[in-house]
Amino acid sequence: MVSYDWLVIGGGITGSTVAYELQAQGATVLLLESSPDLDNATCYSYGGLPFWAGSSPETRELCAEGLKLHRNLSNLLDQETEFREINLLLTVRENESVAETVKQYQDCEIPPQVLSVEESCELEPLLNPSAIAGSICFPHGHINPKKTNAAYLKAFTRLGGKVIYEAVQSLQFDNNKVIGVNTNYKTYYADNTVICAGGFTRELLTSIGVHIPLYFTHAELLETDPLELELKTLIMPANDQRLGLETTATAPDKEALWEKSGQELAAPVLDPGAIQFRDGHLCIGQISRTLSDPDATVDAAASEAWLREEIGTLLPALKDVPANWHRCLIAFSPHQQSIVSKLENYEGLSVFSGFTSPLLFAPVLARRFAKEI
Q: Does residue 286 have a cis bond before it (omega within 30 degrees)?
């Protein structure tokens, strides 16, 4: 029987970084991922690295470490991640107060720069001046998340790690110790298992009776082929409705609903934003829904129409661009606190999930996890 030091469940940015760092520490590691196409939340991310956003000593340290790591990551992994520094424009809607909105960013490591409508449109000519009252600007890091994820996986296998594309169905136990996992094909054994399955982490843990404050949203966005037009900045709303959605959906009176099928925990929200990658393609988003079923049905045509209407108001040139609708699950935990820990009462089982800014924080915390575990 083949046994590993570690089994890593999930091949997105959390799983690939953890697997790479554990292998780099000399462990034998098997990573299990359900989709060979890596069709996950990492794949459809904007690719942002908000290194400016640290508001406590701990988060400021993580932001600084994350930025330093990403600046050298292409060399470290010997693969291109397309790291760059760009302007992030947080748009304030025309019916919102810029003065009130900027208050929520006063504790950030880098002070916010408030721009008028004219200054905002000078920085991003595709903006509709009638749709905004102004914007808040920050220097922002950016990578190609697909290429960065693939770079970690390639570096992991070069170190001797193994990737198998099979879906994990359940955990294998010996009394209260997790000794492996069962896929739809076979059982794999290891001394330790870490779940990095993003939005599917909750479902896997619930199946063994483990309940931790980890939830998921259904995120929807549009992705284009390379286009001739040029979006110069990363556009996102200054007043992020998704955070309010998460707070409402995880209120104490909603907890029991997460365990029932067919539940919608809160009304969906749409935070209009867009980013253009180096090859010219765009990601346009995003709708967030809190549905209790990971595989819940969503009306794709209605969602696409809603996305096009909202982005068309803010960035008219993007309203009718050819694009494909996509959906993925995004894990989150209340109060933006990620879960990186061993699970009590289950020997050999850890969770690494729930990050607010996984592309920035996961590589740093994966390195710490591998060294300290």
A: yes
